[in-house]
């Protein structure tokens, strides 16, 4: 029995919703432990790459990032108010762009690690925008944003490395199409 | 598992309506970023201070906030002193206080808005069929967490090194990925498939207009019930 296309779309969107909630819950849980900067980026990148690889939808990561970002803005998690959306948007757009340009590399450790590193580092734009609007001196902005992003980028790479074997196993079990495809 | 521990552990004495908090929170954060007048810091600090008092923060929460504020002030003011001179500490302090005022409303919203109220508001503001998806995700997420908890227990019984204290050791992290993360993701996919199939069978879908029971129908039944009760009295 084949699953109807409309049902598959609903399944994919529900999966994107679950990933967005997982991302938020992970961020909420990690807010309690201060100390290591950027550690929340591990789960952010993990749950951005995962729906993109599993659903194959063209803007799955962006949709996940937007959903989690909007909920974070509403709940006011993190610094930046509505600017917080940018911090989710840049990494998710980067993940979608990377998967669009290099389809079929979802199970590669190197690809996922690199995507995680650069996607997490791209959040520097959001941090710089917040710092600039707060009125921070331009000479300080770069140093402050780099300090805040460097840890996040390393954790983002770790998130990418963690998701690659999972994608490979899901492909082996037939839960993800092995041939690269884009939908949506 | 309680997803919003701070909102339920110590209830606020007087909580402002959820919609007000959801409007105030982004607004106060945005004002702290964009409003640079001389009165901005005291006015925003006063407004956020009142909300903080209303939320009845416990000593643990205050301590956590204090540590976060301390690090914020130390890092930003330190950077100002290093880059310019020690005389510039006032500018650094101003910027770091502003960053703290951006962060406090969010924490207060998490504390003051109960999850059920948040869900109701989401269903009102989201366009098209998204409220159906959002409410499905929020409804079924606890079920998913319960399934993950069962997976975790089963894996611990099998001998996987995934107890919280064992996860402090980085050597056990690959175990967590293969024994917990992978089955959890498979469960998520299965649950999403089950929900999507059930919804399709009942006529709910992403591509049909019916994503909720018709409100006028529900209202008509409620009115009929009320009329019947009145008539019997």
TrEMBL record, chain A:
<keyword id="KW-1133">Transmembrane helix</keyword>
<feature type="transmembrane region" description="Helical">
    <location>
        <begin position="109"/>
        <end position="129"/>
    </location>
</feature>
<feature type="transmembrane region" description="Helical">
    <location>
        <begin position="149"/>
        <end position="167"/>
    </location>
</feature>
<feature type="transmembrane region" description="Helical">
    <location>
        <begin position="12"/>
        <end position="30"/>
    </location>
</feature>
<feature type="transmembrane region" description="Helical">
    <location>
        <begin position="36"/>
        <end position="54"/>
    </location>
</feature>
<keyword id="KW-0812">Transmembrane</keyword>
<keyword id="KW-0472">Membrane</keyword>
<feature type="transmembrane region" description="Helical">
    <location>
        <begin position="59"/>
        <end position="78"/>
    </location>
</feature>
<protein>
    <recommendedName>
        <fullName>Energy-coupling factor transport system substrate-specific component</fullName>
    </recommendedName>
</protein>
Automatic annotation (TrEMBL), chain B:
<feature type="transmembrane region" description="Helical">
    <location>
        <begin position="61"/>
        <end position="83"/>
    </location>
</feature>
<dbReference type="Pfam" id="PF02361">
    <property type="entry name" value="CbiQ"/>
</dbReference>
<protein>
    <recommendedName>
        <fullName>Energy-coupling factor transporter transmembrane protein EcfT</fullName>
    </recommendedName>
</protein>
<keyword id="KW-0472">Membrane</keyword>
<keyword id="KW-1133">Transmembrane helix</keyword>
<dbReference type="InterPro" id="IPR003339">
    <property type="entry name" value="ABC/ECF_trnsptr_transmembrane"/>
</dbReference>
<feature type="transmembrane region" description="Helical">
    <location>
        <begin position="95"/>
        <end position="113"/>
    </location>
</feature>
<keyword id="KW-0812">Transmembrane</keyword>
């Amino acid at each position: 029995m084949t699953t109807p296309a409309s049902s598959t779309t609903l399944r994919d969107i529900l999966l994107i919703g679950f990933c967005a909630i997982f991302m938020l819950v992970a961020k909420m849980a990690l807010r309690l432990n201060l100390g290591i900067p950027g550690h929340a980026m591990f789960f952010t990148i993990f749950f951005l790459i995962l729906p993109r690889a599993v659903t194959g939808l063209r803007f799955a990561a962006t949709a996940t990032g937007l959903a989690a970002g909007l909920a974070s803005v509403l709940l006011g998690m993190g610094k930046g108010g509505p600017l917080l959306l940018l911090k989710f948007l840049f990494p998710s757009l980067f993940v979608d762009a990377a998967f669009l340009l290099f389809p079929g590399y979802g199970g590669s450790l190197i690809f996922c690690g690199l995507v995680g590193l650069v996607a997490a580092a791209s959040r520097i734009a959001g941090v710089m925008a917040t710092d600039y609007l707060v009125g921070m001196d331009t000479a300080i902005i770069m140093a402050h944003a780099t300090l805040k992003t460097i840890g996040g980028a390393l954790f983002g790479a770790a998130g990418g490395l963690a998701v690659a074997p999972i994608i490979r196993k899901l492909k082996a079990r037939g839960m993800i199409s092995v041939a690269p495809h884009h939908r949506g | 598992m309680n997803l919003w521990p701070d909102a339920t552990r110590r209830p606020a004495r007087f909580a402002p309506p959820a919609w007000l908090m959801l409007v105030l929170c982004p607004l106060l954060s945005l004002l702290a970023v964009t409003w640079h007048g001389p009165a901005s810091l005291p006015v925003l600090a006063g407004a956020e201070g009142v909300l903080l008092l209303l939320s009845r923060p416990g000593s643990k929460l205050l301590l956590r906030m204090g540590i976060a504020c301390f690090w914020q002030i130390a890092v930003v003011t330190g950077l100002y002193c290093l880059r310019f001179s020690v005389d510039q500490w006032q500018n650094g302090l101003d910027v770091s206080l502003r960053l703290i005022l951006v962060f406090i409303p969010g924490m207060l919203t998490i504390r003051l808005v109960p999850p059920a109220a948040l869900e109701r508001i989401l269903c009102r503001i989201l366009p098209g069929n998204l409220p159906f998806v959002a409410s499905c995700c929020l409804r079924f997420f606890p079920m998913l967490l319960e399934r993950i908890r069962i997976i975790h227990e089963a894996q611990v019984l099998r001998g996987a090194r995934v107890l919280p204290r064992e996860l402090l050791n980085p050597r056990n992290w690959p175990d967590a990925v293969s024994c917990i993360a992978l089955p959890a993701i498979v469960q998520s996919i299965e649950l999403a498939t089950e929900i999507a199939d059930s919804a399709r069978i009942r006529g709910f879908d992403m591509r049909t207009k019916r994503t909720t029971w018709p409100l006028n129908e529900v209202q008509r039944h409620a009115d009929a019930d009320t009329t019947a009760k009145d008539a019997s009295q």
